[in-house]
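Sequence in, structure out. Go.
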Amino acid sequence: MTDGSMAFPGTTIHPTATVEPGAEIGGGTRVWHHSHIRAGATVGAGCTIGFSVYVDAGAVIGDRCKVQNHVSVYRGVVLEDDVFVGPAACFTNDRYPRAGPTEWAVVPTRVRRGASIGAHATIVCGVELGARSMVAAGAVVTHDVPPQGLVTGSPARLRAWVCACGHPLPGGRDDPPQHCGQCGCSAFAEVGP
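Output:
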């Protein structure tokens, strides 16, 4: 266990959490009960790491991310800033896993800025989730998701578009998005690099 006030000034780390020496955690981040952050992991500033979250060595979590309960972020996974990961979402990092002593290689996965992943979704390694995209609860993502795309199902398919505010845009998958009915902004006006 690591006392967050001593090892990571400006953080809140629950006494039941394990933060290994060599992990990096930014100021203002909160790590909750029974979470484990490995040496070599990077967690940015202003994040919330929920109950029983595992962050592997080499995994990267950007600033202001919220990783909900029971999520494992494995080596090779990069969450850019402002990413939301819902409860029990699952990342993989090996395309051909075996229990025995076989050769395996980490296949990187990148979740771009502002993307949201719903509860119990599975993100198969090697994909990129575009900026402010949204993965529905329970979806199984096997291909890249475009910026502001909404994917659902197993395997996940593009169904619609979402605004930067997160609400669905009028029209369907093949309709060019116009304006958000919720916040009124132009469909892709606020998407940055």
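Check: The first helix runs from residue 4 to 7. The chain has a mean pLDDT of 90.
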